[in-house]
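Lecture notes, continued. The same structure-token format from the folding unit now serves as the input rather than the output. Read the line below as a description of shape only.
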């Protein structure tokens, strides 16, 4: 088993994030020592933690992450990730359109200091 500090280093999740995840039931320690209140995680916790790191990177909300973790079969995970990917692709397209609008704006010479 791993103490919080060691587990934090292993997973890339801060101690504060681990505490928060435990508080909301997303990633609870497998054991809490009643004498010193140290929290411990195991190898299964590590796998869940790494999944959570990816889900956050994939722009999942906390509620979506809870839904994934609570669906212990992970049956819907691939579909959820594909949905997130489509949403991100749409956002990239939207941002690219804004960049093109900015380029068009500059081509008009609006705001160009060299036209004095």
């Amino acid at each position: 088993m791993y103490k919080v500090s060691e587990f934090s280093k292993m997973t890339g999740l801060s101690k504060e994030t681990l505490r928060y995840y435990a508080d909301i039931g997303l990633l609870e320690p497998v054991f809490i020592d009643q004498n010193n209140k140290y929290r411990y995680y195991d190898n299964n916790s590590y796998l869940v933690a790494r999944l959570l790191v990816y889900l956050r990177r994939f722009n999942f909300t906390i509620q979506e992450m809870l839904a994934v973790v609570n669906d212990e079969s992970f049956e819907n995970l691939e579909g959820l990730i594909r949905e997130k990917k489509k949403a991100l692709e749409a956002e990239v397209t939207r941002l690219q359109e804004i960049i093109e609008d900015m380029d068009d704006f500059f081509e008009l010479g609006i705001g160009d200091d060299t036209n004095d």
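Point for the exam: The first helix runs from residue 4 to 11.
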